[in-house]
Write a structure and sequence with these properties.
Largest sheet: 8 strands, parallel
Strand order of the largest sheet: 3-2-1-10-9-8-6-4
CATH topology: TIM Barrel
Helix content: 40-55%
Number of helices: 14
CATH superfamily: Divalent-metal-dependent TIM barrel enzymes
Strand content: 5-15%
Distance between the termini: 38 Å
Mean pLDDT: 97
CATH class: Alpha Beta
Structural class: alpha/beta
Bound molecules: L-rhamnitol, zinc ion
Radius of gyration: 22 Å
Order of helices and strands: HHEHEHEHEEHEEHEHEHEHHHHH
Number of strands: 10
Length: 422
Amino acid sequence: MYDVKKGYELAKEFYAQYGIDVDKAIEIADSTPISMHCWQGDDVGGLECKEDKSLSGGIQTTGNYPGKATTGAELRADIEEAMKHIPGELKVNVHANYSESDVFVDRNEIEPKHFQKWVDWAVEKGLGLDFNPTYFAHPLSTDKGTLSCADENVRKFWVEHGIRCRQIGQYFAEKTGKTCVINHWTPDGDKEVPVDTLAPRLRLKQSYDEIFEATKDVTGVMDGIESKVFGIGAESYTVGSHEFCMGYVMRANKDHIIMTLDNGHYHPTETVSNKLSGVYAFDKHVLLHVTRAVRWDSDHVVGMDDETKAIFEELVRMGKLQDTYVATDFFDASINRIAAWVIGMRNTRKAMLAALLQPNDKMKEIEASGDVTARLAWKEEFKAAPFSLVWDYYCEQKGIKKGLEWLLEVKAYEEKILAERA
Ligand code: RNT
Ligand code: ZN
């Protein structure tokens, strides 16, 4: 046990040398919402009343760690357990396949009432809710596509799903009093480069147009359009490519239609940190999917790695942190799933706080003066700053276990609760 207060005081003096206000940084990091994805808790299985929970659309979880949630009640209890160990403002991100009903309700039939348990729980906890249409893990989601399918019956089925999701999003916003951020992602693509690459993209465009037109009176929601480079089984061609999605968002020119940037969705040497200002040059908001891609879009638990830190440095330096909807998106089935949430969510918040604990204005001044030598020296210096002394203090102030103390509690929960699950 060390003296956390003393550590914080010392760190405060360190940062003050560079004109950094530690308390202000803590306040900003603490109040910036992070949307915690529900799907880490059950390997994206969902709560629909059906036997087959197998995934499709290139989304894969690996691992078979025992104790995963199999009911809505278990999943929400696990989310609550994880949240005990995650400081700062949180929202919960629900996918459409997490509808709850005694009988099977298909994706083109879902209504707000099928998410009532999520809503009642979120309202009771004071949490905001975000939402996602689920265009995968369904008999009508095949290698022929969903929103871009040439079969009109299939395409219309999924358009109806998108329409219903926007209506449900409005319901979430009305009940929670907080904006509902909806993310639209389709797995549509092809194993080989098709001869006609344009037609599927025109159909995807048409489908999004139809969804937004049919729900143009919906309020209280934001709509992120998420691109991807490739998925397993669709390696050669993705209908909703980066160019397609960016084109769609910019052309739509509507405040609620924005880009979703997932940092697992680009070629390995491309980075989201390097894309953000390009998008912000043209738009007011971005939806961020924070993940960790190991060699491909593997959706490992978020690490406090260079790219995660660089993303938040960019957002802070541009003054766009508050304009960015931050959401996590990973699913690791090989470790305790609650620990996975805690580690990934804490790392996301840590990267945010670390970016705020830098002399960003001073570094901008140095750059503007043309002193590129000093610029590099300053940028590098803060990589070894006493960040964890501030982090531990922040956690303690919030009544959250600091350091690795949380792990003992998650292990105790595993022994008591998870071990009892079939
Ligand atoms: C898939 C996308 C998408 C999903 C979630 C479950 O590659 O990243 O965001 O991970 O909708
Ligand atoms: Zn994503």
